[in-house]
Write a structure and sequence with these properties.
single chain, about 650 residues, Immunoglobulin-like, TIM Barrel, 3 domains, eight-stranded parallel beta sheet, five-stranded mixed beta sheet, 22 helices
């Protein structure tokens, strides 16, 4: 292996992949070099290349134990690297924080690997140790009188899984901002979420799946995509409830805040004016913040404790106490909503959503700039809808830098997003293993896969899940590497199934008895039209209206949709549903679809609140930015109205799940 080829391997730069067509694609060498250069490597400097190869490959064999040691809770072991000819007379491991001290057996150690460097053979030896509790532990390893330090990661067998084999749960998914307030508020927040929780729990619903609640751009509210956030470790103040805040501090909100002036046209408008909503919310929050300064002694200690605990995440707000206060309040209110969910009998409660990356120029990116590749952006390889591939514009984390700082950033990310919830959905879970990096040069764009330290990222996920008792769902739509599928199954990371995409080898909708068991099943998600819009072709008419499809493309798309609808009718018939055909109203087809899906093996069935609202407008049209008002569309009815109207459908689904 030549020096450059070795470094490409050590940096995880992919060599090949299989395209959606099944074609075997080998990445262009210059494209792969671009990935190295984006990681700050001068590929023309052979001394630098050799030094990096030494640091990433050889150096670890010259030290008996690595900076991080992975081990399993069920079978705890240490891995040592020693010269093959050396003798081992003393081996102990101590973890002072746990009062743990274990003298290891030095005889009959298992050899699990070797390496030859400059004529010397080094061996990797596995040695069993006494059980250690799950978590990250600062350990001292003494070998023949010489002391070394390592961070011992003790991982459970799998993520926390609260759903027994014979149990099936029903949930509701919602974009929080899309909820329609019952009063004259401009937009929904944690108050409306709490109302939805109580209403849904009363009908037997076990969880609420949310959109990402990440901090967006407070001073640029029109940057509304929850999947292009400002900082994934923080929450968006947009969701803070004035009502809950006043209740928390025993303040009469009517004394301090006049109702927002909303006329009839505002109430009937389908899309939120994000700037108006954000400015209105911030004005109210700032007034209340100023008033609460007089009561500071009552809450200052809790606030300071929060700031200390999240010191790193809040580093961008060093001189902005108001912004830090908003984060404290937001996390408190989210945790309050989760507590309400559990008190009302929900099995899981809230399920948070973690976006795959942060926006370019975001505070997350700027405050962790050294961890990111310079200009590479995350996207997707060519597919039938984008033959040139997709560039999502999200900065790409450098896998080598991520490991060099012991994954502290990734730990922050997971901890922040499992705080105050019962479940975590990871968008594009394949990103734990590999991400498609895009490189733009002039008018052209190239790309390749870059692989991440999956074993370590998965270990963090399992440890944090177990410690906080939060289940994990991975959004695994698209091309999923075999190793991801196996790891998800073994780790009890639930799959994410969309009915539209579950097809057999004949391109027919898959029979429900073949659905995965450990899975969260949905008809659609935020990137797919609501069912009523899909059935009536409203999404295609909308794309034509926004000039995303021309006349010919619209005609082809309509014909394809008719074919899909016909497949759905035949699928329903095969599952014992009669009387549904292409002329049937969506209001008749949707309950029939849910009744069949409710009988699938999938442990989690999720109803979109959009569909219960009979919504026809999408919340997002992938591939658009300015053309369509993405991430702003409100529901047409309040949660009270939607749940009351859907009561029988929800109860039937609960009953069918338990048959």
């Amino acid at each position: 292996m030549d020096h450059i080829a070795q470094l490409l391997y050590l940096y995880g730069i992919g060599y090949e992949y299989h395209k959606y067509t099944g074609d075997h694609v080998i990445f262009d060498h210059q494209t792969r070099l671009s990935a190295l250069k984006e990681c700050g490597v001068n590929t023309d400097d052979i001394d630098e290349v050799n030094a990096l190869n030494f640091a990433l490959d050889i150096a670890k064999w010259l030290t008996p134990i690595e900076a991080i040691t992975l081990t399993k809770e069920a079978q705890p072991k240490l891995t040592l690297r020693l010269e093959a000819c050396s003798s081992l007379s003393e081996l102990t491991i101590s973890i002072p924080a746990l009062n743990y001290h274990f003298v290891c057996e030095c005889n009959n150690l298992s050899e699990v690997g070797d390496y030859v460097y400059q004529g010397t053979r080094y061996v990797a030896l596995s040695v069993a140790i006494a059980p250690v509790v799950v978590g990250y532990h600062q350990a001292k390893v003494t070998i023949n009188g010489q002391c070394y330090e390592t961070e011992l990661w003790v991982t459970p067998e799998h993520c926390y899984d609260p759903i027994s084999d014979n149990k099936k749960l029903l949930g509701i998914s919602v974009q929080l901002y899309s909820l329609k307030p019952e009063n004259s508020k401009l937009s929904a927040d944690f108050f409306e979420l709490k109302e939805l929780i109580v209403l849904a729990a009363g009908e037997g619903v076990d969880y609420i799946l949310l959109n990402p609640l990440h901090l967006l751009f407070v001073e640029q509210p029109e940057k509304a995509s929850p999947y292009s956030p400002n900082d994934r470790r923080l929450l968006h103040p947009f969701y803070i409830s004035i009502e809950l805040l006043c209740e928390r501090f025993n303040v009469d909100k009517n004394v301090f805040f006049k109702q927002s002036n909303i006329d009839k046209s505002d109430r009937n408008h389908s899309y939120l004016d994000m700037s108006r909503c954000m400015n209105d919310k911030l004005a109210k929050l700032h007034s209340l913040w100023q008033y609460l300064q007089n009561q500071r002694n009552d809450w200052d200690a809790d606030f300071k404790q929060f700031c200390q605990r999240k010191k790193e995440e809040l580093s961008g707000f060093t001189d902005d106490e108001f912004a830090r206060f908003l984060q404290w309040v937001a996390f408190e209110q989210l945790a309050h909503c989760q507590l309400v969910a559990l008190e009302h009998g929900m099995a899981i409660g809230l399920i948070n959503d973690l976006a795959v990356g942060c926006a370019d120029g975001s505070s997350e990116y700027e405050s962790n700039r050294s961890l990111y590749a310079e200009h590479a952006r995350v996207g997707a390889p060519p597919d039938p809808w984008a033959e040139q591939g997709q560039n999502w514009g999200l900065p790409a984390l450098n896998p080598v830098k991520l490991k060099a700082e012991r994954f502290e950033f990734f730990k922050q990310l997971i901890r922040a997003n499992i705080s105050g919830v019962g479940g975590l959905r990871i968008d594009h879970v394949m990103g734990l293993r590999r991400l498609w990096w895009c490189f733009v040069s002039g008018e052209s764009q190239s790309g390749c896969y870059v692989y991440y330290p999956f074993e370590y990222l998965l270990a963090i996920l399992k440890i944090e899940s177990a410690l906080h008792k939060v289940m994990v769902i991975g959004e695994d739509l698209g091309v999923v590497p075999t190793e991801i599928k196996l790891a998800m199954a073994e780790s009890h990371i639930y799959s994410n199934i969309l009915f539209y995409f579950e097809k057999d080898h004949d391109d027919q909708f898959l029979a429900v008895e073949h659905y995965k068991k450990n899975a969260l099943l949905m008809v659609a998600n935020h990137d797919v039209p609501p069912f009523f819009g899909w059935w009536e072709h409203d999404d295609l008419r909308l794309k034509k209206q926004y000039q995303l499809l021309d006349e010919q493309q619209t005609s082809v798309a309509n014909a394809q949709r008719e074919t899909e609808r016909d497949k759905l009718c035949r699928w329903l018939s095969l599952h014992g549903v009669r009387g549904i055909d292409l002329k049937s109203e969506a209001a008749l087809v949707y309950p029939a679809l849910i009744k069949v899906l409710a009988q699938s093996p999938a442990k989690m069935l999720t109803l979109q609140l959009d569909d219960l609202d009979c919504q026809r407008l999408p919340v997002n049209i992938p591939g658009t930015d300015k053309e369509y008002p993405n991430w702003r569309r409100q529901l047409t009815q309040t949660s009270t109205e939607i749940i009351a109207k859907s009561q029988m459908l929800i109860r039937d689904a609960v009953t069918s799940r338990n048959l």
